[in-house]
Amino acid sequence: MNVDMTTTIPTGANQGTQQTSKTAVDYQSFLKLLIAEMKNQDPTKPMDSTQYVAQLATFSQVEQSVQTNTKLDQIMQSSALSQADALIGRSITSADGKTTGVVASVRLASNGVIAVLQNGTEVPVGAGVSIKPAS
Known about the structure:
Elements: H1 5-39, H2 49-85, E1 90-93, E2 100-109, E3 112-117, E4 122-124, E5 130-133
Antiparallel strand pairs: 1-2, 1-5, 2-3, 3-4
């Protein structure tokens, strides 16, 4: 029941990367806005130090949120892989009932878990799929 971590994690990581890049854009936008505000402040009325500290605190919170989301994505991928590992050696029937076989390996894809049968056929694991002990 070995799962090759080098081939399964990068495939599943694509979804997290897409979400992270969207978050990174928001993070970068916030940083650019903060810098622009600091550069363009009125020299006769500089930003109040309290406001400056509050904005830096907000900046720190945004950064921590991005890091937390990245870690949560990694945990979810690891959990999905651990659960998928239990499918190896079991009999699976596709949702349409046309494909049946014993699971040889599993991998994570952007659309979920894919069970690879002993004959090389791939079956997406999802609603309607039947899984039972191999005969």
